[in-house]
Amino acid sequence: MPLRKSNIVLKMVNGSVWELPCAPNLNMWWNFGSCLGLLLTSQIVTGMLLAIHYTPHEAMSFDSVSFIMRDVNYGWLIRSFHANGASMFFVCLYVHMGRGLYYSSYSSLLAVWNVGVCLYLMSMGIAFLGYVLPWGTMSFWGATVITNLFTVIPYVGMTIVHWMWGGYGVSGPTLKRFFVLHFFLPLAMVVVVGVHFLYLHEGGSNNPLGVSSDVLAVRFHPFYTSKDVVGLVIMYGVFSFLALGFPEALGNYLNNIPMDNLRTPQHIEPEWYFLYAYAILRSVPHKTVGILAMAMSFLMVAILPYIDNSNFRGLQYYPIGQLLFWIFVTNWALLGWIGSMPPKGVCYDYGQIFTVFHLLYFGLIVLVNRVWDSWIYAECR
């Protein structure tokens, strides 16, 4: 008997990875889960290396980042891989979520989807905390804007904000708290990823046809390990090209200027993966309603499995649903572009239109699929 089947520990790994039964028709869009695992590992390792030299002090943090970039051996390489790794992580994450929405993976894997939404929110929080740590101009003002959103919570909003700040404004205590959270939350995220895997292996993965494939299931190794290796090599090649060739392409030049709390930038712009949510927030004139609209954009992703009762699993069976989905993706990208522009003129008007469609999409897709189902069943009678 092979060691992987006789050893207690290796037996668990063997059943969860080596001999895991999988659908035989999984395509390239299923590779991004493995890419996310590799990138999360890369982020934790590079983050720990950066933490060795980083100083979470308002008078020294910016200089410590400069020290890492200039004086630490390969410090520039570590920071470039860490900063651009966050962007690459969100690229894979959004594609992974998009695949789940298109193929309706949530309909058969509800627990997996719910844990995935939690991982998405954790990723957003960790990325925001990390964005503050360089203590540049955009870091400081981004922290000021985002933390002030909690003031809309009745009665306790201002208390929560003061607790996050560690005082009456974004300052040194805020930086220390954000650094501690940014260091420990990824470790907590690893545990949640384990829960995500546990539910996934218990229920089995969805497939492009959306039908049960237990009879035709194949082993994960070698059928999908080989496919995943190819995907990981391509992804890491693109990632390395970005980190080594264009390390500042996705950053903001204002973050290379030390923090100045007396000089507000003309246009406060977050990282690209926050831009769509930022555009939704700015598109609503009323602060509280804008925050609720932004929260709804996250909440609808979690609610969708409970309101979608389509007869077929996946938009590949719904031509109008497919059209709506790709309009939604385009709309999401346009929201990101709006978020990168100053909130005035035609950009503000278009931002409101795109925001309304973004929030209505989840109801529209359910309605369209129900109408299509009723039409199909009417034709079959």
Automatic annotation (TrEMBL):
GO term, biological process aspect, one: mitochondrial electron transport, ubiquinol to cytochrome c
UniProt-annotated binding residues for a ubiquinone: H201
Amino acids binding heme b b562: H82, H182
Residues covered by the Cytochrome b/b6 N-terminal region profile domain: 1-209
Needed cofactors: heme b; heme
Major location (coarse): mitochondrion
Stretches that traverse the bilayer: 28-55, 76-97, 109-133, 140-165, 177-200, 229-246, 288-307, 319-338, 350-372
Textual note on the cofactor: Binds 2 heme groups non-covalently.
Assigned keywords, A-Z: Electron transport, Heme, Iron, Membrane, Metal-binding, Mitochondrion, Mitochondrion inner membrane, Respiratory chain, Transmembrane, Transmembrane helix, Transport, Ubiquinone
One GO CC annotation: respiratory chain complex III
GO MF annotation, one: quinol-cytochrome-c reductase activity
Binding site for heme b b566: H96, H196
Domain of life: Eukaryota
Localization: Mitochondrion inner membrane
Cytochrome b/b6 C-terminal region profile domain segment(s): 210-380
Family: Belongs to the cytochrome b family.
PANTHER family assigned to the protein according to its UniProt record, in alphabetical order: CYTOCHROME B (PTHR19271:SF16)
Function recorded in the entry: Component of the ubiquinol-cytochrome c reductase complex (complex III or cytochrome b-c1 complex) that is part of the mitochondrial respiratory chain. The b-c1 complex mediates electron transfer from ubiquinol to cytochrome c. Contributes to the generation of a proton gradient across the mitochondrial membrane that is then used for ATP synthesis.
Protein known as: Cytochrome b
Protein species of origin: Atrina pectinata
Gene this chain is encoded by: CYTB
